[in-house]
Amino acid sequence: MKKVACSIVLLVAAAGCTRVAPHQRGRLAHPSMTQSSVIGPGEQHVRAVQEGAVGGSLDATSGCGCN
Amino acid sequence: MQRAAAAATDRLGLPRLLARALFALACAISISAFAKPASAGEGAGSSATPSAGAPPTGATVEASAELSTYADTDNVTVVAPNARAGIRDDAEGWAVGARYLVDVVSAASVDIVSTASSRWREIRHAVSIDGAYGPGDLRGAGSASVSVEPDYLSISGGLSPSWKLDDDHVTLAVSYALGHDTIGRAGTPFSVFHRTLVRHQMAAGASFVLSPSSVLWLGADVVVERGDQSKPYRYVPMFDAQVAPQVPPGAHVALVNALRRDERPLEQLPTERERYAATGRWLHRSRWATLRIEERLYMDSWGQLATTTEGRYAMDLSERTTLSPDVRLHLQSGASFWQRAPTVTETDGAVMIPRLRTGDRELGPLAILTVGMDLRVALTQRLAAVRTAFVVRAAGMHTSFIDALFISQRQAIFTAMAFEGAFQ
After folding, report:
1. Nearest CB partner across the interface for B210, out of A18, A53, A67
2. B149–A62 CB contact, under 8 Å
3. Domain positions in chain B
4. What CATH class has B61-423?
5. Nearest to residue B250, comparing CAs of B401, B398, B368, B359?
6. pLDDT confidence of A40, banded at 50, 70, 90?
7. What are phi and psi of B141, to 5 degrees?
8. Which of B89, B123, B127, B306 has the most CB atoms at less than 10 Å from its CB?
9. pLDDT tens track for B203-234
């Protein structure tokens, strides 16, 4: 646990050392660099139904054909 | 190839017509993508940044329609059309949108066969709305959704503020969502029978700009569930303790019926569950491609542990065409109360069944390998007043049920076709 915490702190510190000017952010602004899910709602629902350990999804509900 | 695709989809229960349509559409899009050379204005800059050269002016109206299909070797098919519309103004920092989705599920899975029930079909309707506002460093977003089917009603809503710090080098985000599900039985009004399930989902995370081409996301989420989510249709076969070892993984329905006892109680799951997950996601953009790698670690109070690893490589084949192969591996252990062949105990002639019991193989140990590919083709120039695009996705999924009755593996194919449009 301590190692994980130290790693996160180091990561934040390293990020703080990196300075990226606005004119250097063309690649970061590319649509494919999104943090959002890149799959559609249909596939998200399939995963939510088929993986008991999926968690964190409020759209699992039913409609799974699994009776 | 067309014949092979049709044969494969026939085996999975998809109509031959759909296979032909998918094949024809893929050909048409490929021809369209490579036949149109990019104009001089399209390729400007080192990347396809939407805002490069033309800052957003005014609101943008966006709309999309998608048709997805799912079919597996367990005789489950799903056809799910959905449509989304929204309007956004990036300069002012606001956006609103709404989505409508319909699931048509048709199933004759082995669980249904084992209870001597006939194939059934069910339709789910889901509506969601979302919005966001934040012209400065602080941004707030909210969403709400309702999902309705004959025996299940789900209502949820959530808020997720975020802050940009350190000259946009770090973005912190937190979120809270509340879900309220009403679980019923088909053909029985909720007023006669229903169970309630409440979910609280809390998440926090941060993204870090590591370089002019790399971003890292670290996040964690906790889900607290209260309520009985046992399936009111799922009956669990019971075995004598000395017989249970004779029931192998993947045992056929006939063997299970020959060895099981007469008792077949309904599923009973714990009424409380806490889920914990940690996610790391690294994105790197090179000149012509984006690499996305994600790892998610999961554990919950039911004793399940899981790891999900994903990789995706989006390649710009041309100014208008992006091909994105992806691979995903999900591994999970079984819940602490999971038993492939649940056993009864007899004391002085009294039969005791396990207090917690399930036949839901998704609560058992399993592995799912998904290999897929997206093809996105812009039909117009990137800076055109009206922009349209076609997206086609196909994915194959292989599931290994390591310790379950009836089936030990399942193959599935998922397809989606989407048309997107936007204008300012």
Report:
1. A18
2. yes
3. 1-35, 61-423
4. mainly beta
5. B401
6. confident
7. -135, 150
8. B306
9. 999 999 999 999 999 999 999 999 999 988 88
